[in-house]
Amino acid sequence: ERAEAAAVLAKGKASRIHLDNLSMKKEATTHVYDFNPYEVPSGKATDANAKKKLLSEYYAYGLVARGEGSEITVGKADLELQGRLVRTEGKGSRVIVESGKLLQVLPERTEEKNKEHQEKYGNDPHVMEALDGTIYAGMNQDGNEAGDKTLNVTGNIMARANKGEQGVIHLGLGTKDSSWTGVTDYEYMNGEVNLYLKDGGTWTNER
Q: How far apart are CA 203 and CA 207, in angstroms?
């Protein structure tokens, strides 16, 4: 059965969550546990030393605006997770991250294992996903240009446009220390992604 967890979830219709600061490190979504040899369901000794991940990176979230018209605002984020860091799902929902760090940590795999993984599951989760609604990251108060606070983003992003849903991402890199390393994934989700660069902000276009 699927396990799902989010650090911050705006689930109700028109719900509002505001946080001045939010910090979450990768250990929160990459925990493992050791089987107790005396409590192994299979009864096999070989299973006693196996390590199992508690939560799949596909169902681990940082910020999720799920309710219709819901909104999450974070003044300064320090998110370093194995999973999906910022996601909007509800119609008219918004997530606003003014500054900080959004770092997606991918599982360590060999090139062969990574190829097998992509064939089976497709691409890894994205650092930002707008399925419906809008994500503002590093933008000014009006949401129409890059702000003057530093934001660093690592990971690929995706916006969806499908069956009446419209995902939009506005990503602003407005200081010399602001950066994004990643690509926009248009392979199967053709939403709207807008990148705003000024005052030395940099984008490294690599997956």
A: 12
